[in-house]
Each structure stands twice: as structure tokens, then as C-alpha cells.
Amino acid sequence: MDMNSRYLVSQNGPVTAYLRISSELRMFLPVSRRREWQEVTPDATSTLGHHVESIGIPLTEVGPMVADGRGVPPSYLLVSGDVVEVHPVPRPQQLPREPRFLLDVHLGTLARRMRLLGIDTAYHNDMDDPALVVQANEERRVLLTQDRGLLRRRALWLGAYVHGSRPADQFRDLLERFSPPLRPWTRCTACNGVLVPVTKGEVEPLLEAGTRRNYDVYGRCRDCGQVYWHGAHGARLEEIVRSALSWAAHQQPVRRLSSS
Fold first, then answer.
1. For the chain, where are the alpha helices, taking DSSP H only?
2. Would you call 18 helix, strand, or coil by DSSP?
3. What torsion do the CA atoms of 45, 49, 50, 52 make, to the nearest 10 degrees?
């Protein structure tokens, strides 16, 4: 059978439809079905989006879908003989404004790294799935997760699957997909609040003697009150920032903004 033909027929004519899955999306398919061509049965009621999700691919990860040379939406109703090419979301993904994020309970290390780089990142280590969807919708935050079931929740306005098992790889995946501006050392890594400059005198009662002697420039989280000073973050965090900025600078069209 010629899988590239427009119509796939039996002796009685077209009896099914086919989805041609891009290589980037096949990781979402069950191992037993992890192949380019997926056969589905049109039933006059199930949409194209339903068929795509039924084989395991969250619609949050799907970009253009093309049938017979024309783009079709997730609401398209398949008919027998259709062949639809299913492509991933183009990168960087275009959003109406600078992205804000909400991470599920399993991405705490990534959340801290994102805050370190100045990305608006909400995170709670005790929030269940329905509450995550509510906050993402109310605050118009992109929900980041590796839970495919969470991404398939109908109520969720926008989500994204995070690729990678290591925080560094996850962060690079985020940069590639959303190209968020980077403003290191401008957010509290504990609560996501914005850091504001303060005088040494304002925070001196909160400082240990060694810190008072060695540092003169301070910032404080306007939400939780955490005090920060240059040098408090250590060489490891400095390296994370340097690596992220260097990697982002070599990506196109990833945007980078300074903290000034």
C-alpha cells in the first residue's frame, strides 16, 4: 500500500483515514504504536483534535495540521480517505505577550532556575492538578509539566510539555520553545517576587556580622522580604547564569534582555 497517496482504498473504496505524525511528536505515542503513520476511523462526530489526542499526543504540542495541502483546525471532522500531516508547535511559540509560567510539583528545580534568570515563574510543591489549571487560567500562565494527562485537560487555556530529565536540558527546551527574556538576579528564587534595591542600613539588623563587613550592595524581595547580596549565590549559581546567557545568545531568534 502506498502510504503517500491521498486516498487509501480497499475494494469497496476509502474506509479509513491516516495521520502522518512528525518525528518530534512520536515520543508521545505508545511504544507499540511509535511509527509515522497512524490509522484512525472517522465517525462523523469525533474531531481531528480528538483523534490526535486519542493516540496519545496532547494538543498543546501540536502545531499546523495539513490535509490535502490545506491547513485544518483541531475541530475538523475527518472523512474516510483523509491523510493529515500533524506537525509540532513551531519554535519559538508565539504568545500575545511576554510569557509567564506555572510549574507542576515535579519541576521545582527548574522553577528555581527560571527565577534565577528573572523569568516570572509560579510554583507550589503542594498543588493538585485542578488547582494548577485554575491558577494557570486565572493568571494566564503557561502551565509547564511532564504529565501528559494534565496537558489534555479541556479546561486548561495553555500548557506545554517539558522535554529532558536534567534541569539544564529542561531550561534549554524552555528557551527554544518560548524565547523568554532573561533578566538574571531580578527575582526571588524562594517566592518569585521582584527584587528591589535597599540600603545596607535598611537590612543591617537581618545580616550576620561577616556579611555586614564584606558587602555593601543589597536587594530585597518586595513580597517575602528575603535579602540578597552580591556574592551570596556562590560559584555554582554564577555558572548556571553564565551558561544560560551564553547558550541563549547563540540561539536564534531567542531574545535576551539585560537587567538594566
1. 48-54, 108-116, 129-139, 148-151, 167-178, 200-203, 209-214, 234-249
2. strand
3. 130
Grid cell in block for residue 140: 494566564
User: How many Cβ atoms are within 10 Å of 106's Cβ, its own excluded?
Assistant: 12
E strand spans, 68-209: 70-71, 83-88, 101-103, 121-123, 142-145, 159-161, 195-198
Cell, residue 16: 479509513
Q: Are 167 and 242 in contact (CB under 8 A)?
A: no
**Angle at CA 86, nearest 5°, toward 80 and 87?**
165
Q: Find, among 124, 115, 105, the residue nearest to 221 by Cα.
A: 115
168-214 per-position pLDDT tens digit: 999 999 999 999 999 999 999 999 999 999 999 999 889 988 888 88
Structure-block grid coordinates of residue 51: 483523534
As a whole number of angstroms, the distance between CA 208 and CA 186 comes to: 23
Q: What is the pTM of this model?
A: 0.87
What share of the chain in percent tops pLDDT 70?
Answer: 90
The total number of residues written for the chain in this structure:
260
- Per-residue model confidence as pLDDT tens digits over 3-36: 444 444 444 555 699 999 999 999 999 999 999 9
Query: Which stretch of DSSP H or E encloses residue 67?
Result: strand 62-67
- Residues 6 or more apart from 200 whose CB is under 8 A from it? 212, 215, 216, 217, 218
CA 88, 100, 106, 243 torsion: positive or negative?
A: positive
C-alpha–C-alpha distance, residues 80 and 69, integer Å: 17
